[in-house]
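Structure tokens
________________
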Amino acid sequence: MTEAIRYTADVVIMTPDGDLLLIERDWEPYEGQWALPGGHQDEGETSRMAAARELLEETGVVVDPEELRAIGTWDRPGRDPRGRYSTDAYLALVPAGTPIVAGDDARTVRWWPATGLPAQLAFDHADIVAAALAEANR
């Protein structure tokens, strides 16, 4: 039997002064925990398109999919309790003061200083954030 793999895309959104945008999840798994904006790829969508769409739906922030900087793929078995998930993660810089609004699937959305992130992030998002910060500082 073949293992079904679901494809998702996540976005690390940063301001030039080092703030990161996180959502508080409004559903399981990890309901109530902070996470990166992101979600499932729809049929016919590239991961970049999915990342930009999910970012808009969850936070109200608009980015051009072509402006997203790829930072890697996270596909370790067990990274999601719902089954096998592979996510492409992207980095985008937006101006400080970019307006945000909690939308679809997000209980709350908030800017966090990169040096003061919540102790626990959902899934393996702390690993993704670490890779994005390393990429941003290159």
The mean pLDDT is 95. Helices lie at 47-59, 125-136.
